[in-house]
Design brief:
alpha/beta; Rossmann fold; 7-stranded mixed sheet; 19 strands; about 35% helix; about 25% strand; binds uridine-5'-diphosphate
């Protein structure tokens, strides 16, 4: 039986960061396993025959305010500086998302927009971000009209497609991450560092995992590997409920059926991502050549069709955050706490809607915990 100091289950972002730190900083041996045929989890990308780098699981734009995280990843990739922009098709008009003061002037006549702009600034202040559920609580008649307009046109249809729930049925943080922005800033994110790995995410993962102490085994299941290897510490980035054999019941997730298509035209849309809250069954279209400014006479797009996660059919992509699901997760988390030398991290291990930045932060915190325990 081969011996490793660490077994890391899952070769997505949390697993790769942990393996890297355990090998580089502690000099420990690490076996990383993944069920899939590829590394990098849902960050996986590849260059297609048209020279366009496609994100197989939908668009990933890296951003962080943390210099520690930025410097950590910068050891493993060069960057293409990229400030993400999203347009939403509202009443047939392309408007900046998050909905901001520029969006206001796109959808309303100038005088009406000016009146609403003045009221927004007076009520909340310039450069403030207001979650839609909070904006809906305003008493002012005009602001109430505006809130209902944005709620209906930007959030309701999109959220029903994405989650099969209304915004109020989900944890407020879900729609709160795309707040109405009282500003002229058309960027989707405001973080200090925003970029795409210049050689792609997959290459960045390869570099992170390139260490004599790290071994990666793909198409390998946790259940099978336990008969073959021994380990002292377990980092589990898979679904926590699966680890515990569903003893408190299933935790629901949304998944995505992503259709990738190449069109025989140089450019399809006016932004890297266009959201369709009101039309079609997909939520958004991403046009990949934008992300690394790749040139091609053709263009490759992804169409995201959300659907429920079903074992054996698709992947767990989004934990569905609401009180009932959190209560089930808490029972698993309580059991997890009692297990020595075992850590559950990442979107599936922690049942959190982490973006890449928070995933890395979660892994680095866990690593520090392990390091200080030794
Ligand atoms: N959202 C929406 N309309 C939009 C954009 C976002 O209703 O045009 C809501 C929706 O509920 C979505 C959430 O805000 O799931 C978070 O959006 P984000 O773009 O951050 O989602 P992700 O990129 O993680 O899929």
């Amino acid at each position: 039986m081969k011996k490793y100091k660490n077994l890391v289950v899952g070769c997505g972002l949390s697993g790769a960061v942990m393996a890297n730190k355990l090998a580089n900083e502690l000099g420990e041996t690490v076996l990383v396993i993944d069920r899939k045929k590829h590394i990098a989890g849902t960050c996986y990308d590849y260059k297609n025959e048209y020279g366009i780098t496609v994100h197989q699981y939908g668009p990933h734009i890296f951003r962080t305010n943390s210099k520690e995280i930025w410097d950590f990843l910068s050891q493993y990739t060069q960057w293409y500086p990229f400030m993400h922009k999203v347009l939403g098709l509202i009443d047939g008009i392309e408007v900046p998302i998050p909905f901001n003061l520029n969006s206001l002037y796109k959808v309303f006549p100038p005088q009406m927009a000016a009146g609403l702009e003045a009221k927004l600034i007076a009520a909340f202040g310039f450069n403030k971000k207001i979650p839609i559920l909070q904006l809906r609580g305003t008493q002012d008649k005009d602001l109430h009209f505006l809130a209902e307009y944005i709620y209906t046109k930007v959030f309701l249809g999109y959220t029903l497609k994405q989650w099969d729930y209304t915004p109020e049925q989900l944890d407020p943080s879900v729609t709160g991450s795309v707040p109405v922005y009282i500003s002229r800033d058309d960027r989707y994110f405001q973080e200090k560092y925003q970029a795409i790995p210049r050689q792609g995410y997959t290459k960045m993962f390869e570099n992170m995992l390139h260490h004599p102490n790290i071994e990666v085994r793909l198409e390998t299941d946790f259940a099978d590997i336990q008969k073959e290897v021994s380990y002292e510490r377990l980092i589990y980035t898979g679904a926590i409920e699966e680890f515990f054999n569903y003893k408190y019941g299933k935790l629901p997730y949304r998944s995505l059926d992503i259709k990738i298509e190449t069109f025989d035209t140089e450019k399809f849309q006016n932004a890297p991502v266009v959201n369709y809250p009101e039309n079609y069954d997909f939520t958004r279209i991403a046009e990949y050549k934008y992300f690394l400014n790749e040139k091609s006479p053709k263009t490759t797009l992804s169409f995201e069709y959300p659907e429920n996660f079903e074992e054996g059919k698709n992947d767990r992509i989004y934990p569905i955050l609401n009180e009932a699901n959190q209560a089930v997760y808490d029972r698993y988390a309580a059991d997890a706490k009692t297990m020595p030398n075992t850590y559950f991290i990442g979107r599936l291990g922690a049942y959190r809607y982490y973006d890449m930045n928070r995933t890395i932060a979660n892994a680095l915190e866990t690593f520090k915990l392990i390091k200080n325990k030794r």
